[in-house]
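Exercise (ungraded).
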Amino acid sequence: MSDEKNQNKEQENNQPGQQSRRSFLKNSGLFAGGIIGGGLLGSFIDNPFTKDDTASNNVEESKKNLTETRMFFTRVEDFSVLEAAVERIYPEDDNGPGAIGLGVPYFIDKQLAGPYGSNKFDYMKGPVQEVDVASSYQTLMSRGEVFIEGVRKLNEQSVKSHDEKFYDLEGEQQDEILTAMESGEIDLRGVEGPTFFGLLRQMTIEGAYADPLYGGNKDMMGWKMKEHPGIRPGYSDLIEEEEFQLVEQMSLKDYQA
Amino acid sequence: MAKKLDKVDVVVVGTGWAGGIPSAELAKKGYKVVALERGRDHDHSDFVGSKDELRYDARYEIMTDNSISTVTARGTLDDEAFPLRTQSENFEGNNVGGSSVHWSGVTQRGRKFDLEARSITIDKYGEDKIPEDMNLQDMGISYDELEPYFDQFEKTAGTSGEDDPKGPPRSDSYPTGPMRPSYPVRLFKEAASELGYHPVMVPSANLSEHYENPDGETINACQYCSFCMMYGCDFGAKSDPVATVIPTAKKTDNFELRTNAYARRVIHKDGKATGILYVDMRTGLEYEQPADVVILAGYTISNTHLMLLSEIGKPYDPKTGEGVIGKNSAGLTSPGGSATGFFEDKKFNLFMGSGALGGTFSDLDSDNIDNSDVDFIGGGICEIRQRGSGPIGSNPVPQGTPSWGKEFKEKSLHYANRMLSVGFMSPSFGWKFNYFDLDPKYTDMFNDPLLRITHSVTDQDKKYAEYFNDRAEEIMKEMGADIVEKASPPEAWSHTQGYGETSGGVIMGDDPETSAVNNYSQVWDMENLFVIGASALPHKIPQQTGTIGALAYRAAEGIDKYLSDGSGLLVEKKSNKLKA
């Protein structure tokens, strides 16, 4: 997929007005989300909308869902790092949209603005001690604070080693920095890097597959890619079938009504 | 200063099966019962239309709030314990019905071995078979003595199942027939039969048909909708306390359910319990609920925690092996034994299912296995389960696949409906060095010390896992998987607590020197205090809910006896010093 990405980038760089990688990703993500219902997936290369920045922005902005705006992140740059990072964790491919196309960054933003982001149901008394259990959450920082610290350190590392913002790097360079975060090679203040990375990965998966009511899994595309119906009242009539059943997707919006 | 309320006959802490059963039974008999539930009220109407994986599974909607209290964890006596802060590290059921509401529904009976593990092991293999430092104990009751209570519990729950030719003996058949077998379950049953085992459907509280229990409560037929374990049932088709014993208790007018009521102490004087001190979590005000009989029927963790905080019974000392409260932290690492299969030319409807839909066999369980030539004690109940896979939680990939990125996405999509696994449900034994006590450093929101869990994996666990990993691998190969991966034996405790598997702390036996409660769940050292639940199990029993239900019915009978004729201790004390 990185070849395709490079092609995209080359094409992008040849365009007049030099659309930045960040806005490219953003626009293409919005674009993918907007027309997925029609079944067109995959390459951006022949995408007529991206040929014209202005037209693209106008058309796509109007398709933007009213909830696709930041509730938690205050700095645009932090959010742009988040977008780039989650797209590497769950990239767009021949199967369908990646994390951006699925609305994962906005899903994460909304989650961090709520009780999960402020660790309402977690034990947050000190002191914190060093533990050798990697999966353990040992910090008094909330998940929201962990994300802010984490995305800024991804970006700092990027500037330090490549002299470029994280979201302007090549995909493989971004992967290297993410891998360094995952393995604890990047120092964060108050929390371990793997704790942040584990959350980032987990919440990316959640945003891809949670009910669309939370702002991710746009148009139920996560479920469609997985051939998972999402929800159905039940499967009493099908439970004994030997053949695989392609069942049309349904979300809580239609179920609870 | 706590406000003292009017005295009642019985105060019960907890409203899961362990508390709901005595609440219903004693209220039916005319006793005034108050049940204290730390969580909120909820019933079936809360779960209608609740098919939300993020909310219930990933965000632990109906689990305890760790900001109030949690546990600390360490591997060995030399380690420093740290708090399990998040709900993914420590969870148990909260709210009315307790953990039974999010329960899978698997309703196995404890085996003969589970109740008399020490005697049976010595009879069959001699005392040398028991490893040094293993606290292997009998529960002071035999399977035959407990059988009528298993039957009673299954009739209340309407358990769906079929007779297991290798299972423990039954006085009656299951109240409802088995669930319908999905294709993966049929594949498993065929493979297991081919290998000489005797597979049947997993006994289930997700009912195969509409059922009315002896108390007049109705449970609906399961729809195989997949939102089951970790959820409350959308259809009222899981028999849990909310569908059965809680409404039965409410019908009597002798029962009061007090929610958001967090028990902090058993109050006692001169060797007798006088009541429960609790906090109304909506106001922070403290109350004392006096009662003639006090029942602790929380989960393992809260029962043990309350006993230690209330300073009842002798705390267990891992250095000397003396004392009883906190003894045998078990079930935290289930050695299990499992294998995963990836299929290239088959796709399964894994998005369908229910918590207890599955196939099982008992040919290698603790009663049937011959341990003569292996270096471990006990056996396993084999299972394949089709719980219904959630898209967030189920991202199966073969070993060696990266956990994120392009390849991960591709393979997790490809194998989403092509992965099955088979496993063995194992006992988890008590060891001298695995125990619960009060943490010296960390405190809960009331500034009481947290419960500390000390637990490590033993050679027994590893040997057991090696043996059963191989058996699981054979089955998965027979099922025709293209890639078969057997599990690795456990290296260390994961330092997590959840899935209702933890047991011990207030264990049952026939000798007050080595156990905290007798076979009526009555505390040896305080005759009007009964501690019911998985805390009573000297070792973790595979799929223990059925056994807890049976023990709760027996406890209810004992409490009635205690209250009606002032019997004092319901069981004569024994001393097993010579045996130990």
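Further reading is listed at the end of the chapter. For now, observe: Chain A is about 50% helix and 0% strand. Chain A has two domains: 2-226, 230-257.
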